[in-house]
Write a structure and sequence with these properties.
With 112 residues, the protein is α+β, with helices and mostly antiparallel strands. β3 and β4 form a beta hairpin. Pfam families: PB1. It is found in: Cell junction; Cell membrane; Cytoplasm. Keywords: Cell junction, Cell membrane, Cytoplasm, Membrane. This is PB1 domain-containing protein.
Length: 112
C-alpha cells in the first residue's frame, strides 16, 4: 500500500514541476520550475544568465517542443507554453544574440 502511495505522490510531483536542462555552448545546467506557475519571462531570462554566468551579453533562448521543433522563448506567453507543454524535460538552448543562424546549430522556428 505504501508503494502505491509513493507512486501517486511522484505522479503529483511530475505534474507540479518540470525539469529544465539548459545548454549554452558546451555547458549544461539543470533546475526545475513550477509547471502551473512558472513566473515571468524576465525572471527566467535573468535566472538563465545567472546560472550560465553570462554577463554583459544578450542571448536568444529557445526550446525543443514535443515534435522536436526549436521555438523561441522571448515573452511571458511562449515561456508559459514551453513550461506547461513540456513532457518531463524542457530542453533550453541559449545562443548569443547577433550570431548568424548558419554559424550555429540553433535555428529557431517562429510560428506566425
Amino acid at each position: 500500500m505504501n508503494r502505491s502511495l509513493s507512486k501517486s505522490q511522484s505522479s503529483l510531483q511530475y505534474r507540479a514541476t518540470v525539469e529544465v536542462k539548459s545548454k549554452y555552448g558546451a555547458e549544461f545546467r539543470r533546475f526545475s520550475l513550477n509547471r502551473s506557475n512558472p513566473g515571468e519571462f524576465q525572471d527566467f531570462y535573468k535566472l538563465i544568465l545567472r546560472l550560465h554566468r553570462l554577463t554583459s551579453i544578450d542571448v536568444i533562448i529557445g526550446y525543443a517542443d514535443i515534435q522536436g521543433e526549436l521555438l523561441p522563448i522571448n515573452n511571458d506567453g511562449n515561456f508559459c507554453k514551453a513550461v506547461s507543454t513540456a513532457p518531463t524535460l524542457l530542453r533550453i538552448f541559449i545562443q548569443r544574440q547577433g550570431i548568424h543562424p548558419e554559424q550555429t546549430s540553433l535555428h529557431l522556428v517562429v510560428q506566425g
